[in-house]
């Protein structure tokens, strides 16, 4: 089934060229189907790119999804046209009285700041609290994962001497969990971050379960509340050339960024990336939608609590 997206969203034409079936709101209203309502709080600087990456993964399901985009009132994006934000995004005040089957909170380019020093920290904390009573299951990605773990459980983050940058193999710790249905024993996840969380801090919290980790990149996926919250330290949603663009952007400008590990063929940045995470990314998002959203959410969305 297709995704229901706002009319004229740029991702629609991009994904149609990839033969991904998406549907704008005008056509979707003609179908008598109760779609799953998904809200995305997009904190990434290149919002159109992130929209497209996430929609690409969410499209790999037989269920119809209605996608909503949330923006912050306390932050004005610098890398996305104002017209785009006005046309496709709603701020929290416009959405706070609604309930959603699923929510995704993206990473943000503020990880080297203390959480309390982030200009929108108070607003984000309010959204995190709201999600616990208005959303069936939430995915927190990269900085959002660290921020939510800190907000809810007091888990600190630690600075890295070098950016954790590349594609890293993770081992599944509980293969019987539905989120890992169809996975091999190991999978690969892109990482792009300057900070990390530590296993020993997470292990002290009974409500938190580390369900995947990597020898190189540390904790990979954490789950809480029986799957109502997932915390991903990396970026399964990344497109093949995202790390390449980040590397070429920072090359010669920063001294804490090396060539992304396990990424380029023969470890040569003149070569193409070797894509090793796409199948697990599609599986992860499909399993999340199916087992933790669709099969857990009430038929009457207002019954979410």
Q: Averaging pLDDT over every residue, what do you get?
A: 90
The main sheet comes to: 12 strands, mixed
Number of strands: 12
Q: What portion of the residues fall into strands of 2 or more residues?
A: 25-35%
- The stretches of 5 or more residues where confidence is low (pLDDT under 50) are none
Q: Which shape, going by the Cα principal axes?
A: globular
Give me the strand/helix succession: EHEHEHEHEHEHEHEEHEEEHH
Total of helices: 10
Q: What is the assembly state of the chains in this entry?
A: single chain
Helix content: 25-40%
The gyration radius over C-alpha positions equals 18 Å
How does the helix and strand content classify structurally? alpha/beta
**Whole-Å distance between the termini?**
27 Å
Catalytic activity: L-homoserine + acetyl-CoA = O-acetyl-L-homoserine + CoA
Pfam families: HTS (PF04204)
GO molecular function: homoserine O-succinyltransferase activity
Pathway: Amino-acid biosynthesis; L-methionine biosynthesis via de novo pathway; O-acetyl-L-homoserine from L-homoserine: step 1/1
């Amino acid at each position: 089934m297709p995704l229901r997206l706002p009319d004229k969203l740029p991702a629609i034409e991009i994904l149609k060229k990839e033969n991904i079936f998406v549907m704008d709101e005008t056509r979707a209203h003609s179908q008598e189907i109760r779609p799953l309502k998904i809200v995305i709080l997009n904190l990434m600087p290149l919002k159109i790119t992130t929209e497209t990456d996430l929609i690409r993964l969410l499209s790999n399901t037989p269920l119809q999804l209605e996608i909503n985009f949330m923006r912050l009132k306390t932050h004005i994006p610098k890398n996305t046209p104002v017209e785009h934000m006005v046309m496709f995004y709603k701020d929290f005040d416009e959405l706070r009285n609604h309930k959603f089957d699923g929510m995704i909170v993206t990473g943000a380019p503020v990880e080297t700041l203390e959480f309390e020093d982030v200009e929108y920290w108070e607003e984000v904390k309010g959204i995190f609290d709201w999600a616990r009573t208005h959303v069936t299951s939430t995915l927190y990605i990269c900085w959002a994962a660290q921020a939510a773990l800190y907000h809810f459980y007091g888990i600190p983050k630690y600075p890295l001497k070098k950016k954790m940058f590349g594609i890293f193999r993770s081992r599944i710790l509980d293969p019987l969990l539905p989120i890992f249905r169809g996975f091999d024993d190991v999978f690969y996840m892109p990482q792009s971050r300057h900070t990390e969380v530590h296993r020993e801090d997470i292990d002290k919290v009974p409500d938190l379960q580390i369900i995947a980790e990597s020898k190189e990149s540390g904790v990979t996926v954490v789950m809480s509340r029986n799957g109502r919250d997932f915390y991903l330290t990396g970026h399964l949603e990344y497109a093949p050339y995202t790390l390449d663009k980040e590397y070429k952007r920072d090359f010669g400008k920063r001294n804490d960024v090396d060539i992304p590990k396990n990424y380029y063929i023969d470890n040569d940045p003149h070569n193409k990336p070797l894509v090793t995470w796409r199948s697990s990314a599609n599986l992860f998002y499909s399993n999340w939608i199916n087992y933790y959203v669709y099969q857990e959410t009430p038929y009457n969305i207002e019954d979410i609590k």
